[in-house]
Structures are given as structure tokens and as C-alpha cells.
Amino acid sequence: MNSVFFRFYAELNDFLDNKLKFRRFEYRFHGKPSVKDAIEALGVPHTEVDLVVVNNEVSGFEYNLKDGDFVAVYPVFESIDISNLKDNKPLRERKFVADVHLGRLARFLRILGFDTLYRNDFSDSEIINISNEQNRIVLTRDIGILKNGRVEKGYFVRNTKLKEQVKEVVARFDLFSLIKPFSRCPVCNSKLISVPKSRVLDKLPQKTKEACSEFKMCGSCGKIYWKGTHYRKIKDFIESLKVKP
């Protein structure tokens, strides 16, 4: 039986047993497991890890553990440029694919202007294929999908309430300056275009005809949008997101 010492940093501790959180601890093993296998055996999805340091040297996931090693594991650095520390640059894409548990989050990310794919019948395999083929970040509440070896980019959403989920994702991926509200259809994810009132007049409720003068339409599904009763509340929330905490 061999042993190494691990230390996980920041939010990676969310996945560890309480007795292992925020401390150096011993990990025992047989054979020559890779550092990736050991990290996931401890409960941390590899997609949440951006930097592994073994014995004060930057390491890859493929490194085989040796008796007496010390392994420090760091989370994905979205807001900090650590590209000079390792060969692979930190994750920088801002396109997403959300799992079946995150439909409301997907809709709101679209409202913020972020390209987010979602269907309530996507299988795990479909989500992984879409992520890899289209260079999208998997957003999920299922840790299991992030432990799939085919997943290259993914994030486990910690919060369960919508507004907190939105704040979490915006902060995690440093999206503050990239928000373009009301530019994408929350229903189908396509871009919205401004249209004259005359073009959509026959499709509007009578009260909307009288009260509103600015309209946008989805170029794909044809849905029409205007500044309705919920607009101010949504706009105020969006404005609060644009300010880094």
C-alpha cells in the first residue's frame, strides 16, 4: 500500500467529505493510478480542475502517483490569467449547454445574451457530444456527467434557486462585461432583431398596441417581445449582475 498527500483549494472542497475539506490529507492506493483517477475517486469531477501541482511541479492528469507525492489541486481560474503556469490555457468560451435540471437557468442565460442550448429530453450522451463538437461548457446539477471521461468542459452548479444560479454562473465565468440583455430569444436561443411596430401590429394584444412602441422578434421562432410588466424587475436584476461583488 502506497500513500500520497492531497490538498484541494477553494470551491473544489465542495465535493469532498467534511473530514477532508480545506486541509492536507493522506490518500492510500495500490498500483499506479493516474492523478485524474485519484481526484475523481475522491469525488471531484476532472472538469472542475484547472491546475494540478505535484511536488511543486505543474502536472497533467495522466501523471501516475508515486509513494510520498504531494498533490495540490486548484479549480478552474476563469477570472485569473494563469496561462503562464501551464501549457493549457484556462477555459474562456462563453457558450453553454445545460442539462435537464437547469431549464430555467438556460432561459435566463439567453435573456442575458449568452448562447445556451437546452432541451428537456437531452440525454447525457447528447449533452457531452454537443459540448465537445460545439465547444460548449456543460452546466449541470449531476456530478456524474462531469466524471465522464469524454467531458472536456463542465461546471457543477451549486445553487438550486434561479437567481442564485444566475449570479453563480455569471461570477464563475466572469461574464459581467459580456452581458447583452434582451438580445437572444429565451425560448429558442436565436438572435432577436428589432422590428417596426407596423410589422407586428396584427399580432399584438390591444393593450400592448396602445402602450408599447418598441419591439423585437426572434428570427427563428417568430416570437415577439416588448417591454411588458416584468421588464423593469428583470432589468434591475440584470443591472445588479453587471457589478462585480
What does this structure look like?
It contains 8 helices and 12 strands. The chain is α/β, with parallel strands linked by helices and 245 residues long. The strands form 3 sheets. The chain has a 5-stranded mixed sheet, with no helix packed on it. It has a 4-stranded parallel sheet with strand order 7-6-8-9, with helices on both faces. The protein has a 3-stranded antiparallel sheet with strand order 10-11-12. α2 (103-111) packs across α5 (162-172). The longest helix has 11 residues, at 124-134. Residues 78-93 have low confidence and may be disordered.
Task: Provide a brief overview of the structure.
By secondary structure, this protein is an alpha/beta fold. The protein is built from eight helices and twelve strands.
Helix percent reads: 25-40%
Distance between the first and last residues' Cα: 46 Å
In spatial order, strands of the major sheet run 2-1-5-3-4
Which regions contain 5 or more consecutive residues with pLDDT less than 50? 78-93
Q: How would you classify the helix and strand content by structural class?
A: alpha/beta
Strand content: 15-25%
Average pLDDT:
91
Please identify the oligomeric state: single chain
How many strand elements? 12
Rounded to an integer in angstroms, the radius of gyration calculated over CA atoms is 22 Å
Our count of helices gives: 8
- State the shape: elongated
Largest sheet: 5 strands, mixed
Whole-number total of structural domains: 3
The secondary-structure element order is EEHEEEEHEHEHEHEHHEEH
